[in-house]
């Protein structure tokens, strides 16, 4: 990982993924959380303050030391204890069936082994546990999707492996989860921004 990815990309992600327009999606992703929560791709802590009162603990997985440092002011103000437990969503240092719910926001687009990360969530969640998610991804509009495929390589190089072409609901379902709720829409803005702005947010569950 080069200096750009190590030191610059976390600041870009903090700014772009922390915009107020994404707050409703984060609210939706957090709405079903309870008990002990594993948050994959904790980043700079943009979800702090949105956890329901039913959440008792956050175990955070975050590969970037810079992003973790950026989260320090938010963690200091959090009413919920937050502990960093790992760096890789595909290799969680947690026991089987040891967490109640999970959260992943604007990270499934970037995790190199996304299937492995979803398999790990299946392993560490208790039966019937849920994962809340909010992500950008592949548009159903063929014209937008063509541009996403054209830009995907450049996107990955500039933004730390972030993909434009991952079909988030399909990935979640193929990972062993059943969608309970899904909202999809474009982020408000000019048409030219649509390759980056097709958003999916919701909740999915493991079998009981």
TrEMBL record:
Entries under CDD domains matching the protein: AdoMet_MTases
Name by which UniProt lists this protein: Methyltransferase
A GO BP entry: methylation
Sorted UniProt keywords: Methyltransferase, Transferase
Methyltransferase type domain residues: 38-131
Organism: Nocardioides luteus
Family matches, as Pfam families: Methyltransf_11
Example GO molecular function: methyltransferase activity
